Amino acid sequence: VQLVESGGGLVQTGNSLRLSCAASGRTFSSYSMGWFRQAPGREREFVAAIWVGGTTDYADSVKGRFTISRDNAKNTVYLQMNSLKPEDTAVYYCAARRGYALNYDYWGQGTQVTVSS
Questions:
Q1: Using H for helix, E for strand and C for coil, what is the string for 53-74?
Q2: Of the residues 15, 72, 77, 102, which has the maximum number of CB atoms within 10 A of its CB?
Q3: What was the pLDDT predicted at 25?
Q4: How confident is the model at residue 56 (pLDDT cuts 50, 70, 90)?
């Protein structure tokens, strides 16, 4: 599986962005997908996940502001980010894992999101 993120950019505090992650292959629907982020000088952290059945999970820091969704017909997972804050500034990575596997096996190259105050 190859993952390609897009949609990052520079926005002001309070604005919105939608990230997309396009996946290759014919079995996208059998993968659980996740979004992670890494800010300068910090470890990569979990942001959101959507399981094969559609159940979603979010980090507390983004709950109520971010929404993860998937379109299996388009082999794409999205991250809608609203009410962005400067602390959301990071490189955002898309990841995939088979079914309900514990670990993510595939990662994208990342897309930069910068939120100015």
A1: CCCEEECCCCCCCEEEEEECCC
A2: 77
A3: 80
A4: very high
